[in-house]
């Protein structure tokens, strides 16, 4: 495997256009290193880089996409589906929890509802 | 051999599959073209940092994946497009690095050179007043886009002929002609700045 490809796979770990994103979140939640992640998915360690660079399964055809990817890499589709679902959920939570910057460059915390008109929090 | 390009038909077919939604094709496409693209940049700029070549190649490929409409197959082949995009990303990274270096070392900050005649291989000479001076700012604002690109590279200390030729879009010319054209633009930039510096 080329060093450049390994570098790219690491770089896209937070990019939702890559399967690397869900796999990174899953591995983090389980405390897995690369060898642990490969073992959890039942794939060869050498295949991890190419697996990470795949596009993630589309929600509307999740199962079919997972089976296609799993079949290509010779890994268990159920294990991959579970890892990807968990990883994508965690990635969404992380995205929601991230403070956002408004146009003026002020950091805003995410919240569920606008503040009360009198500025008070609890009624 | 990972540094060799696959044939254009294979690359186009992989891209078609990727654009068509095949989840594995993205990985196969990247595995097929990343190393050749980085290798192309190393050959184009043999003096360049290895990490910069890889990052620029990655940037070009990620831009294509994020914005597939940036590539129009009717205009040019995919390999040619990727090479051109990676060269542009490479120059952008060089420029960013130059700015970063200047910010870290105030001695390198935007000081232009004396009128000594030898412009040190493309980097602007070093005794001009700051470019923040309005008389320089007005002159710089009048540069054409290629002149501006060359000026920024010279200002960032990246005045080697290959990068200046690429910024001017004359990298395809025979070496003698390319050297002449680069020198002509460099000289014109320096003269204009010298003239601006002499204005009261």
Q: What does this protein structure show overall?
A:
The complex is a heterodimer of chains A (123) and B (200). The longest helix of chain A is centred in the last third of the chain and has 21 residues, at 77-97. In chain A, 54% of the residues lie in helices and 3% in strands. Residues 119-123 of chain A have low confidence and may be disordered. In chain A, strands 1-2 form a two-stranded antiparallel ribbon. Chain A has one domain (3-111). Chain A is mostly helical and 123 residues long. The radius of gyration of chain A is 18 Å and the shape is globular. Chain B is an all-alpha fold. Chain B has helices at residues 8-19, 25-44, 50-66, 78-104, 134-141, 145-155, 161-168, 175-198. Mean pLDDT of chain B is 80; it is low at 106-122. Chains A and B meet through helix 1, helix 4 and helix 5 of A and helix 2 and helix 3 of B.
Task: Note the total helix count of chain A.
Answer: 6
- What is the typical, i.e. mean, pLDDT of chain A? 86
Q: Which consecutive residue ranges of chain A, at least 5 long each, have pLDDT under 50?
A: 119-123
Shape of chain B: elongated
Number of domains of chain A: 1
Order of helices and strands of chain A: HHHHHHEE
Label the structural class of chain A. mainly alpha
Shape of chain A: globular
Largest sheet descriptor of chain B: none
State the major sheet of chain A: 2 strands, antiparallel
Give the termini distance of chain A in whole angstroms: 60 Å
> Which oligomeric form is depicted?
heterodimer
Q: What structural class do the secondary elements of chain B suggest? A: mainly alpha
Q: What proportion of the residues of chain B form beta strands (DSSP E)?
A: under 5%
